[in-house]
Amino acid sequence: MGGRGVTRRGLLVAAGAAGLVGVGGLTLPARADDVDPAALRNRILAAQPAYVGLVESSGRLGLPEIPRLESVTGLLTGRTRIRAFVAAADRWRVDELTPVGERDTYRLGDTEYVWDFGANQLTRVVAAGTLQLPRPADLLPPTLARRLLRLTAGDPVTPLPARRVAGRSAAGLRVSPSDPETTIGRVDVWADPATALPLRVELSARPAAAPLLTSELTEVDDRAPDPATLVPTVPPGAGAITAAADDVSSALRVLGAPPAPDRLADRDRIAALGSGLPGVGLYGTGVAAFALIPVSRDVAEQAIAGAAAAGGVAAQVPTGRAVLISTPLVTVGVRTRGRGGSLLIGTVVPDVLARALAQLPGRRPA
What we know:
Elements: H1 37-46, E1 51-59, H2 70-77, E2 79-88, E3 91-98, E4 101-108, E5 111-116, E6 121-126, H3 141-151, E7 157-165, E8 168-175, E9 184-191, E10 198-205, E11 213-221, E12 239-244, H4 246-255, E13 263-264, E14 267-268, H5 271-274, E15 281-285, E16 288-296, H6 297-309, E17 313-314, E18 322-326, E19 331-337, E20 340-346, H7 350-359
Parallel strand pairs: 6-12
Antiparallel strand pairs: 1-2, 1-11, 2-3, 3-4, 4-5, 5-6, 7-8, 8-9, 9-10, 10-11, 13-14, 15-16, 16-20, 17-18, 18-19, 19-20
């Protein structure tokens, strides 16, 4: 886990804090078109069946390159092929398949392992944190659907026509977020009516009609994976290192970022998601939320220069420089602050991040 600041897998943009909805004793009709969408949403949130499958995701968010965040940009602006072996929420393996190899992530309790085919190295991450940058595991339809449905638990749900997904007739539902300051217009989910396993997710902006992020299981098997596939092994000649999740906190302290404000752009900081990470904050609730991430001065300057070249708009701030990058689904703000900088990113309208950038306090004296 080398590098500084945003090089750490430490944050999940727009992560939610809503709890699981517990529902028991529900029996769905056999026909996918007969499923009540509210009941299906509750069952999706309550269940987490094991499965093995292949996933294809596609993003068309139009994000420009941001220094040190190229892997995130690739996930949200291109096509990703994934192989998934899921036994439980804390026992799984997810392989990102590329033309030149693969990158495999294993989760066993509070420890993660990352096998990098290109680097020929296995990294063991001890006490893996709950905050992290988006990665292939977050794009699995069941994982993505549950996260989005938790974040939109209070929003209206309507039925969608059944469709064929992974050789099955899948029941559909649509959630339309009501918060006027989120960029998300609708969340569409299709799930197996018998198991409530989400098979396809589409995320659309408002008021655009076409989905900008889709994820679908193209093949799926309703079985627990072989336990042996969930245990990483180091091939002969490969490297193996161990990294502590606490390294994230240490790296952020090196940046000397001031504490994250308790409130930005009329949104309270979610304290539980920022504890232990200096300068980090998550603000807002539901899908109208954004993250604050401290970065080094050079990363902020590079991001501002790149954003300006990609059509970013200068933002008014008391000191330093700032720019806003708007896409239909994701808004990004970058600001220099003394010897460092800040990155803001979330599924909120540009005006929210413009206010947040202007309200950020200056850095502590050196």
